[in-house]
Every structure is written in structure tokens, then in C-alpha cells.
Amino acid sequence: AAKRAGGGCYALFEPHMGSDASEQLELQNDLRQAIDRGELALHYQPKIDGTRGQISGVEALLRWNHPKHGMVSPMVFIALAERFGLINKLGNWVIDEACRQTAEWARNGMRMRVAINLSVHQLRESGLADRIGHALQFHGLDASQLLCEITESVAMEDIKATQRTFDGLARIGVFLSIDDFGTGYSSLNYLRQLPAQQLKIDRSFVNDLESSEDARAVVSAVVSLAHALGLRVVAEGVETEGQRDILLAMECDELQGFYFARPMPADSLFAWSQGEKPEGAVDFTPSVIGS
Ligand code: C2E
Ligand code: MG
Ligand code: MG
Ligand code: MG
């Protein structure tokens, strides 16, 4: 199986897999055991600060190294985990592992804000803020070192749960981000009330920046809207220098995408902070990594 350190390359395992019943049952069992067998890992993709050109934080992205199928995309197994009722187990593992890694980096001199992605099920879990609070405490972290990303469509799907969870997380000092913005249907009045600090523009808009005037108009408007609401804007899925230049001209605060770096194992990110550039990363020196 073709395995690369980063995202985008999941050989042998396509989204249609797991569609027939016996395959599903097998996968369900595999997934149940994946945590205990140590097959799960977090890879980390940097967010680059637009004005300072430094790494401002990283996003933790879940990977499953299946013994038979190789790297399985989270697009596949997150959906399976949700269907099988395993998403909380998976989500809890992510919370703990991200905190553990953040603390380890900090001990080694790399202070970094780490973002994790939350699913709709976690959002509905009433004890989520407590659980995250305990993980932070256990690993000796400051709450501001953790950021939670919630997809816009998920946030709007269950407005009550979102509000409650966001309030709970904000109360303990965790940073919050609205992910994949532009693909859901946000009530702006509602968006205004969420205690978030960050908004991430969906990669579909970023992808069209160079070819579509409409995409440029939308992104520019979203940047203005976010700034008016006091949110920092991250553009996800930046793949070209041209996209980067347009986004910087629009005063987008942070950029993330394959152009800068693919998601990578924790060790590679740390090595980068020591001057060892990961394969496929853009040629820049993250002089002060994290802040
Ligand atoms: P997301 O949170 O929007 O994460 C961004 C996705 O875009 C990642 O895919 C990343 O590898 C990919 N990406 C980053 N830069 C580029 C680029 O320049 N071009 C392209 N084409 N893609 C880029 P990935 O890792 O496959 O994750 C997919 C989705 O799975 C994530 O979307 C997120 O919604 C979900 N996910 C990942 N990890 C977790 C997790 O721990 N928990 C939950 N609940 N969901 C997760
Ligand atoms: Mg995300
Ligand atoms: Mg996203
Ligand atoms: Mg996305």
C-alpha cells in the first residue's frame, strides 16, 4: 500500500468500502480493536500565520493504519465510527493523545496550540467540557493551548448542543473554531453569539480562487465578516503560491494547506522546529515555532 507521511494518499481503501454487510461487520470489529492495538495515530498539519510567516498552531488529524488495508481515510472511518457508536471512544482517544503530545512538545521547548476536530456526537455529549478539562489538567496544559474545530454544518445541525458545548469549553478557556465555513447554512445572528475565536474557510472556495471571480468575492466577504465579528480567519486547502498571494492580499490571518506542508507525524513536526524540513514542505524556516 502506498503510504505517505501526510494526507491524501490512502491506497486500497476507498469510500465505497465497507458497504457490504460482512465487510462492515469485519471493519466494525477492526475499528473497535484499533485503539487497543495502537493502530491509531494523529498527524499534524501546520497553520501558517499570514503576517509573521511562522507556524501559529497545528491541526491534529486522525489516521488509522489498518493492518490489511493500510492507511484509512478519516472520511471513511469517522463515518463508520459514528454509525457503530464508536465515535466517542475514538474522540476520547484523540482528546487524550493530542493533549499528551502537546505537553511532550512543550517539555521539549516547542509550545504549540493544537487543534482537534469534534464530531456531532461529541458535541451532544453533556460531559465533553469536563472531559476536556480533565485531560488538560492531567497533562498539565493551559486551556489556551487547545483549540476545538467544529464543522459549520455540524454546529448548525444542533444549535442547542453547539451553544451549550461552546459555552462550556469557552468557560474553561479552550479556543474554538468553525470549520469548513461556507458549506453549511449559518444563521449570522447565531454565529454572532458563538464564543469562537477562529473561522476556517472551506477549501472549495480556496481551490477556485485563481479561476473564479465569484470565489474571490465570497472569500473576501467572509474575511470581512469574520473580522467584523472579531474572529481570526484561516484558509484551508491552500495548494498554490497564487492562492497564497490572493489570500494574503485579502488579509486572511492564517493559511493551511499542502502548499506549506502536509499533515505529518509528531516527530517530523518537531524535527522541523529543529531545522529539519519535512519532505514536501515549503521552503521556509519556522524560526519561532508556536507562540
Ligand atoms: P478537516 O477538519 O476540514 O481537515 C482538513 C482535511 O483536508 C484533512 O483531510 C487534510 O489532510 C486535508 N487537507 C489539508 N490541506 C489540504 C490541501 O492543500 N489540499 C487538499 N486537497 N486537502 C488538504 P483528512 O485528514 O483526510 O481529514 C478529513 C476530515 O476528517 C477532516 O476535515 C475532519 O472533518 C475529519 N477528521 C479528521 N480527524 C478527525 C478527528 O480526530 N475527529 C473527528 N471527529 N473528525 C476528524
Ligand atoms: Mg478541521
Ligand atoms: Mg476543515
Ligand atoms: Mg474540510
From TrEMBL:
Domain of life: Bacteria
Protein name: Diguanylate cyclase (GGDEF)-like protein
Organism: Acidovorax soli
Domain EAL residues, every copy: 24-277
Section covered of the full-length record: 426 to 716 of 717
